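Reply to thread "Modeling small-molecule complexes from scratch"

Following up on the discussion above, here's a worked example others can learn from. I took a protein sequence and the SMILES for magnesium ion and predicted the complex. Inputs first:
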Amino acid sequence: MECIAIINQKGGVGKTSTTVNLGAALAERGQRVLLIDLDPQGHLTTHLGLDGEAKGAGIYEVLTTDMPLASAIHLRSPNISIVPAQIDLAAAEMELVSVVGREVILRDLIYGAAWPFDIALIDCPPSLGVLTLNALAASTRVLVPLQPHFLALQGVGKLLETVSLVSRRINPGLTVAGMVITMYETGTRLSGEVIDDLSAFLESARNTPVPWSAAKVFDAKIRRNVKLAESPSYGQSIFEYAPRSNGALDYLALAEELAVMLAGNVAADPVDGSETRQSAQAAVANYRAMPTAPTTAADKLPTEALR
Ligand SMILES: Nc1ncnc2c1ncn2[C@@H]1O[C@H](COP(=O)(O)OP(=O)(O)OP(=O)(O)O)[C@@H](O)[C@H]1O
Ligand SMILES: [Mg+2]
């Protein structure tokens, strides 16, 4: 199972919309999708109308008690299952402070069983705390949604450095798949400039030993579309709410581009096979050998290149 963390510590950039609608687009394409809500705001859970069912059997219980992950998986539609979150997840960060191996709880649960899903998408909170670290430790790839305005790149250095740290110390198989431009205003000069800057930065990392050396700005851009903003109030994905909207088209294009990327990599590097399992085992070994758990990034930030 491919596992993708949708992260950006900046709030309101389209993480949840991307998790829900990219997931729904992949499901439209016949993939069996697991969506994990790792945000105490529980927006993914609400977006897909699962609030009521989530009580007592969600990600909080899985991370903080002996509840098996399977007990917290709710079937939403034939191809979409969800691990929901409630506000009580906010307490998890505190409760896990003294737990040894707190960053790898989710990873161990996911790799502890064979799941009937092709892909899992994890919606992260707008922070780089222990919940996001759990997502990064459990994932094979990272997707970064960002809005192309003048502060968009602020914080990307810190984000990438956190990914780099997790990749070095816990999850050597972790790579950044790319940046997804959200709330895109076609034809504005600023959007173009931000995207050019970002592409140049990623280009400068080619053939360097960083987890984003193969990352790209996805060609599929998610245009600003009011239907995407309306659909959460109805508890629906864009494909249920407005299947012919630009929002649906854009997320389908993104799903297509991602599927091509994943298919390309499967041939060279089978992510669902023993290599992933081995690297997870190696990661556990690395983790146990670590003197201290990684909580904050320590190295030099690659921010100069990002201005
Ligand atoms: N392409 C879009 N066009 C119009 N509105 C959008 C689009 N994408 C997201 N939105 C809206 O923008 C708001 C923020 O999006 P979203 O909740 O997905 O961001 P987020 O990064 O998950 O936020 P948070 O950091 O709080 O978790 C929401 O109201 C959402 O409906
Ligand atoms: Mg969100």
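What I'd highlight from this example: Residues 11-17, 39, 41, 43, 126, 182-183, 222, 224-225, 228-229, 232 surround adenosine-5'-triphosphate (ligand 1) (CB under 6 Å). The CA atoms of residues 243 and 249 lie 8 Å apart. Questions welcome below.
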